[in-house]
Amino acid sequence: MSAAERLVDTPQGPARTTTTEPAGEAAGTLVLGHGAGGLRWTLDVLAVRDAMVGAGWRVVLVDQPWRVAERKIGPRPPALDEAWLPVLEDVVRHAGGGRLVTGGRSAGARVACRTAETVGADAVVCLSFPLHPPGRPEASRAPELAAPSAAGIPVHVVQGTTDPFGTPAEVEADLPALATLDVVPGPHSLGRVADRVAAAVLGRLTAGE
Fold first, then answer.
1. Is 0.90 topped by the overall pTM?
2. What is the CATH topology of the domain spanning 3-206?
């Protein structure tokens, strides 16, 4: 499995895309962003990439400018969105058509939800959506989760059973129309059940193909 890297200029500095192509013509393009912690891709995201490439999809992993610059802490949400939009323009320009699904892990899922309508996504994938900060359910991000659905865009959420950023019950209570929820064992980190995360995403995105 080979991957091609590109640097894309954004108002926040250069972002990096890492694109893995399937063996034949791509059935669609899945673009995934990372979370707010660390400089490495998590096992759940990598497992989703491998499963979707194996199913004939192109997968693009997006490193936000703060990670390209090797900073340990990302900027506020508006800056993340500002960087994401030109990256998606670049991805679409080179993708050659087909379905476009955007998504990500944790903070990356929030970015994808906020920008889904703007980038013309056909669906959104959320891995460990951070519905609220730990211990602060009153600071809900439910409006972000609902944004794609309000624009007619399906949202697929994969959530851990003991996620302190939002349990499956909490997510389900705020789940918008056109949204699905798959529950897997674990907290906010889903690396130990990466295969189950990948299977859930694969099933949602390839249903009916």
1. yes
2. Rossmann fold (3.40.50)
